[in-house]
Design brief:
29% of the residues lie in helices and 33% in strands. The protein is an alpha+beta fold. Strands 1-6-7-2-5-4-3 form a seven-stranded antiparallel sheet.
């Protein structure tokens, strides 16, 4: 995958941040794309590629979705009305999508995790993953399979 925030990928998508820990911590079963309601200083800060989504999650309340605990640092050239770095940001989803997600996360152990933050055609988008937490033995099994694939690739590679 391309470096975060550096190149335009498929279809004019500029990736800002990728949550690499999400697939390590969760079994991701489904993904949804959502828009973000942002302030101007937040957009400028995102364009600079400065954001941390690893500790974030999505909270659903009163038929609305909010992105919580995502750190967007203040834009240094902004004036005194700069944004709060950890404020909850509203996500733009269709009502049917929100109802479907509410139905899925009402089951035990499911959560909504931010997977990737990117710009598509000038608009900030967030890829949300519906995930179920992994147990320690699942993480060990995944690491073992990853190591085995790496060893097979090394053995196949001509010297």
């Amino acid at each position: 995958m391309a470096k975060a925030g550096r190149s335009l990928g498929e279809g004019g998508i500029k990736t800002i941040a990728v949550n690499k820990k999400a697939r390590h911590r969760f079994h991701i079963e489904d993904t949804v794309e959502a828009g973000l309601v942002l302030l101007g200083s937040e957009v400028k800060s995102l364009r600079g590629g400065r954001v941390s989504i690893t500790e974030g999650y999505v909270r659903l309340e009163d038929g609305e979705a909010f992105l919580v605990d995502v750190h967007v640092p203040p834009y240094e050239q902004a004036n005194r009305q700069n944004h709060d770095p950890l404020r909850p940001r509203k996500l733009l989803l269709h009502k049917k999508e929100i109802q479907r997600l509410i139905g899925k996360i009402s089951r035990q152990g499911y959560t909504l995790v931010p997977m990737r933050l990117y710009f598509r055609r000038g608009r900030a988008k967030l890829e949300i993953g519906l995930g179920r937490g992994k147990k320690l033995h699942d993480k060990r099994h995944d690491q073992k399979a990853k190591d085995a694939r790496r060893e097979m690739d090394r053995a196949r590679k001509p010297r």
